[in-house]
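Quiz preparation item.
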């Protein structure tokens, strides 16, 4: 029995060592799977996970205006809903990064990705709870066949039917607003914040601890570049989903250029959530330590840790500070690691708070995010309003430009840092230049926009609209919602067909057209008659606002945006490296949180 007892200890320890360095799940760790158990394998899975994470964020941005229109949510409420992500990160990031950083990091990342997948499914729930909405159904052929009289009365309500009361024709109330969709979006963002924290705080430090430090900048640039592909694909997925009607099985009677069009915003969340679950499973298979480095650790020489006082004097490049040159690699002690406890948390936090360089670098990142978060969140909406792009069109434009510029910034900076190994002071100075350039770019946007379409009744400034005139005073248009119509020959936009004084409409065509419109100005009618021979009551208006041509300003805006993205991403790797090298090895994940 003594012999059995003496051998059981080494056997159990060997099993534990196998679980620490071999790829698999639980007891299932086949030999054929170990060919993927390397830094390259982790780089691919982690990078593709970043791609999907970025896709989900950008897809939310791309479908934001559709979500707002569907559930009658204003932009202020949207901002509050999106704050759920930041709230969960502020509340939980320190604790999650502190505990997860010294445990099985791939497994913790996998759980984080599972939380992100759950947030995707939660985001799709409002559609399954409330459906596409009566207004969207009313614009389909199937709805027309089932409720023909109802649809007809609603279409007639958009016309100028003189002598009838507006209350008999117009929908009352603001629509189907409910607090539940807004709460679900907030909750989804809160859950997403948990997954995002674990992914960013633990993944990069795991990779840094399992590779040569001279290769860290290049590997970071590769993972960040893979992540950068996400926005482009996210915008493309958004474009594809928004071109599908919100009820894909029904046949819409309007095109996606009609302002009443609602795309299938919910569909992408099912795709993204499923993809995240699959990659979470792959991430969970990686061991606590990759086998190529299982017998190596980095000695931590406090004299080599980058500090605010030594950042100017040190001649060492960032990838060789903090005691991580190959000559300093030593054998690992096979003893049990000391896992963090709540008792040690305050002292670890105080240690980071006293690190002046780390705090300065973190604060610079915070202010950078504060300046850019609104820009990133509302960029597609900005293109829709300022440059008159469709929701789907704005998504497909932003995607390719973002991937080209951001990937260029990551790859170029990663290659430069790996090859030339610049001193820390140069990298930090470059980040200052990047920040100043970002501010200049943001200010320049004030002067770039398109002229508003020539809206009849618009008085300019803050005076609002004066929609009622003699030509439509007895049409009963007062309670109608915005549904613009355009007289293309004169580039005139009317608030609705009713406000244009139109008394006839052709609903068999797409887009819907209107004739016999009494509010067309006489001088414009005279010009039209001279050119085409059409009388005033024969001029045709179509649904949708008139589009102005501002291609030049739009190109300048996109060029500045690409430059800002390239410069911004070129400073990211240096910023991350400073965080890594300014702290002790055991605090690395905690510092990222």
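Solution:
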């Amino acid at each position: 029995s003594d012999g059995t007892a003496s051998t059981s200890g080494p056997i159990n320890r060997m099993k534990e060592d196998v679980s620490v360095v071999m790829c698999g799940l639980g007891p299932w760790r086949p030999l054929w799977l170990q060919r993927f158990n390397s830094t390259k394998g982790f780089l691919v899975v982690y990078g593709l996970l970043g791609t999907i994470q970025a896709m989900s964020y950008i897809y939310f941005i791309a479908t934001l205006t559709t979500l707002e229109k569907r559930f009658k949510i204003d932009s202020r409420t949207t901002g509050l809903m999106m704050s759920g992500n930041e709230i969960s990160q502020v509340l939980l990031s320190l604790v999650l990064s502190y505990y997860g950083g010294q445990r099985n990091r791939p497994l913790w990342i996998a759980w984080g990705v599972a939380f992100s997948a759950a947030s995707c499914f939660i985001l799709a729930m409002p559609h399954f709870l409330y459906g596409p909405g009566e207004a969207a159904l009313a614009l389909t052929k199937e709805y027309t066949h089932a409720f023909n009289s109802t649809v007809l009365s609603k279409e007639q309500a958009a016309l100028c039917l003189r002598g009838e009361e507006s209350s008999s024709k117009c929908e009352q109330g603001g629509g189907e607003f409910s607090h539940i969709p807004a709460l679900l979006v907030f909750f989804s963002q809160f859950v997403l914040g948990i997954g995002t924290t674990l992914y960013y705080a633990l993944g990069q430090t795991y990779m840094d601890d399992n590779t040569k430090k001279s290769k860290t900048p290049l590997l970071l640039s590769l993972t960040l570049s893979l992540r950068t592909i996400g926005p482009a694909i996210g915008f493309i997925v958004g474009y594809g989903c928004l071109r599908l009607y919100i009820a894909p099985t029904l046949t819409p009677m309007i095109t996606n250029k009609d302002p009443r069009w609602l795309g299938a915003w919910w569909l992408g969340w099912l795709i993204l959530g499923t993809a995240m679950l699959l990659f979470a499973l792959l991430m969970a298979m990686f061991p606590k330590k990759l086998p190529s480095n299982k017998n190596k650790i980095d000695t931590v020489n406090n004299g080599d840790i980058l500090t605010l006082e030594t950042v100017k004097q040190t001649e060492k490049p960032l990838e060789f500070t903090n005691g991580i040159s190959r000559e300093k690699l030593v054998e690992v002690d096979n003893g049990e690691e000391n896992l963090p406890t709540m008792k040690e948390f305050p002292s670890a936090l105080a240690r980071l708070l006293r690190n002046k360089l780390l705090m300065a670098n973190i604060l610079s990142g915070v202010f950078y995010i504060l300046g850019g978060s609104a820009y990133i969140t509302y960029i597609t909406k900005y293109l829709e309003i300022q440059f008159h792009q469709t929701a789907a069109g704005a998504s497909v434009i932003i995607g390719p430009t973002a991937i080209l510029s951001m990937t260029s910034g990551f790859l170029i900076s990663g290659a430069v840092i790996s090859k030339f190994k610049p001193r820390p002071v140069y990298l930090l100075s470059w980040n200052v230049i990047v920040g100043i350039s970002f501010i200049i770019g943001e200010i320049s946007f004030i002067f770039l926009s398109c002229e508003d379409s020539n809206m009849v009744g618009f008085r300019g400034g803050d005076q609002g609209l004066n929609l009622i005139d003699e030509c439509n005073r007895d049409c009963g248009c007062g309670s109608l919602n915005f549904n613009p119509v355009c007289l293309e020959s004169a580039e005139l936009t009317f608030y609705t067909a009713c406000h244009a004084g139109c008394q006839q409409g052709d609903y068999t065509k797409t887009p819907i057209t209107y004739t016999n419109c009494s509010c067309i100005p006489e001088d414009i009618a005279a010009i039209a008659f001279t050119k085409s021979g059409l009388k005033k009551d024969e001029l045709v208006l179509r649904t949708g606002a008139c589009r102005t041509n501002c291609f030049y300003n739009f190109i300048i805006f996109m060029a500045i945006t690409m430059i800002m993205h390239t410069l911004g991403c070129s400073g990211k790797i240096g910023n991350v490296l400073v965080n890594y090298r300014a702290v002790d090895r055991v605090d690395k994940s905690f510092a990222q949180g």
